[in-house]
What we know:
membrane, DoxX protein, elongated
Amino acid sequence: MKTTILSWILRITVSVILLQTLYFKFTGAEESIYIFNALG
């Protein structure tokens, strides 16, 4: 039981992080543009 709850918490956490990255990617955020210009 505890492992399934922990598993769901980890899945939701990862999903939230990935959704945030999609927001920055598709809105053309200044932070993203700066990072990729600095990398080359």
